[in-house]
# Entry
Amino acid sequence: MNKKNIWLISQYSYPPGKSSWRRHFDLFRHFNKNEYNIDIISGSFLHNSENQHILKENEKERTIDVEGVKYHILRVMSYSKHIDRLIAMIQFFFKVIFFSKKLLKESKPDIIMASSPHPFNGLAGMYLAKKYKCPFIIEIRDLWPETWVAMGATTRKSILYKIFAYIEKKLYKNANKIVTLTANKDYYTSIGIDEKKVEIISNGVDLESYDSNLKEYRSPLIFSKDNFNILYTGSHSQGDALDVLIETAELLSEEKIVFHLVGEGVIKEELKKIVEKNNINNVKFYDRVKKYEIPSLLKESDAVIMLLRDIPLYKYGMSPNKMYEYLASTKPIIFSGNVANDMVKEANAGVSVVAENSKKLKDGILSLQKMAINERETLGKNGRKYVEKNYDTKVLSKKLERVILKLLEDKNV
# Structure
C-alpha cells in the first residue's frame, strides 16, 4: 500500500526537547507510520529564546527523525525586535519554497498543511499546494491580525493590519479546510466563511507521556505544607494577567496562601519589582522548569491558577496548553476569564470567576481553600475525567486524520 505523504509547514514547530511547544508532534506521533510519511518543515531559531538555534553555526539545514516524524530544520535569522521577526518570517517563506524541490525527491505531497501564528507559513503552503496539485489545510492557532488589535499592538486602520487581513482572507479562500483552535466557528462565519469548511481541533495533552513523566521525574520544587500553595506555570506576558494575580495576593496577605509563579517572560522583571516595592511576601518567582518536570511539579500544589485578559476575542474561545496540563494534574483549578468555553466550569474542576477582578478572584480562592480536602480532590478528579474524554492528543489525532482522509477521498472522487 502506498503511503500518504503529509507536509506540514510551521516555522515554530520544533522537535521534542527543543521547546515545550509540541502540538504537531503530539498529533502526528499517533499516525500509523506504515500508512503515512510525516515531514515537518520548521525554522532553526527558537522563538522567545535568547539567540538559541537548533542548528550549529555552519549548518544550513538538518533532518531530525523523532518516532517517525521527520523535522526538516532550515536556518533562519535570530530576532528580538518586531521588524527583525517580520524579516525572519519572509526569509523562512523563501527557504521553504526552495527546500520543497529537495524534499520532492523523497516524497511528493498528498496533503500540505500550514500552521500559523504568522501568515507566511500559510502563503508557502498555499503556493506549494497549487504547484503540486494537492489539498491544502490552513491551521489557525492565533486569529492574526485580530489578536494584535485585541492586545493593543495595532489598529484596524493601520497598513500592517490591512496587509495581514488581506493575506488572511486569501488563505481562507484557497484552503480546502481550515483547522481552528477556537471553541466555535463564529469568527469564520462572521467574515463569510462556510462553517463546513472549518474544523475545530483544539490543543490538548498527551496523557501517556504526562503520566509517564509523573512516575519518572520528581518535582524540582518543594512547597511548605503549612501553606495553601497555588501554582502558576508558563509565560509571564501581558496576556497572562499576572498583575491581577499579584493584586489578589496582596488582598490575601493575612492568609496562609502562597502563590508560586514558575516560568519566564517579558514582564517577569516588572512583576518582581511590583512585588518588592509593595512588600508582598506571599508571591514567589522561579525559573522555567523542564517540560517533563511539569506533572510532578503540579502535584506539589494545592491548586493551580490561570488568568486571562478581558478581551473581545475570547468570545471565540481559548485553547491554552497549560489548561490541559492543569486538568490532567487532578488538582483543582482557579480560573479567571470571560471566554466562550469555560472548561473549568464545564468540567466542574474548580472555581471560575470573571476576568481582571481581584476582589472576585480573592473570594473564589478563599472558597476553594475553605473546602474540605475530599471536595477539592473531587474537583481535581472531575478535571482529569474531562480531559481524558475530550482532549487527550490520541483523541485529537484521530480527528485530524479523519479530516485528512476525507480531503483525499474528495480529491479522488
Summary: Residues 82-104 form the longest helix (23 residues). The chain is about 40% helix and 15% strand.
